[in-house]
Amino acid sequence: MEFRKIFDTIPEEFDRYRPRYSEELFSDLIDHAKITREKSVLELGPGTGQATDPILDTGCDYHAIELGENLVAKMKEKYGSRSNFSIVNADFITHDFGNAKFDMIYSAATIQWIPEEIAFSKTFDLLKPGGILAMMYTVGDYKSSNEVLYEKIQKIYSEYFKPETEYMQRGFRYTNAVNYGYTDLQKRTYRGRREFNTEEYVAFCGTHCDHLVIPEPYKSKFFDGLRKTVKANGDKVVFNDTYVMFLCRKPL
Predict the structure, then answer these.
(1) Composition of the chain by helix, strand, coil, percent to 5
(2) Predicted TM-score of the model (pTM)
């Protein structure tokens, strides 16, 4: 299974454990893009709504495109009663949007799954003149909060983390948007904090795409190792998060 489709196998876990983003980030985004009821917005790959509520709550004409059938079902369960909500179960790479144009297109840890030349050129074409492309992701740091525990967890990774398929999506360059016609490129960062007990941390790790493809017997040993290590070292993992947001604009 492709990594970009694997999250569809765990919709409930994905909804519960994947990180959200800061209120400050969304306040800045809504202000920067001037999102109101009169604006049309497209979210790429919303998952189960980790970055949906603040935008939907503006009353804008919200649209989403999501590859995973089960993730779409979860989105409809959560937001289907909202009059300004619309979602299509399709692949952004091949989907025909017809004559639709948007004031803002945004992605929360999704656009990097799309080949760069398609991601930037297609979003550019779908935006109205002056429209905003926003791309955000989370950098999670649990080393600074407890370096001893971090090193012990790394030993578990060294011994048992042997996924069948290597994660290869780290090459996406957000700054390359300017090579496709975008202007006014900005990078903004925000801070956040997450705290997990042992079972929550193990479950969260189980939502990482490359962790889902660890074969047995390594998979059981890996997650059992994480569980025992965290439990024996305070029953707590604290993430000091950095939320990164790139903003750029289609010229008028």
Answers:
(1) 40, 25, 35
(2) 0.94
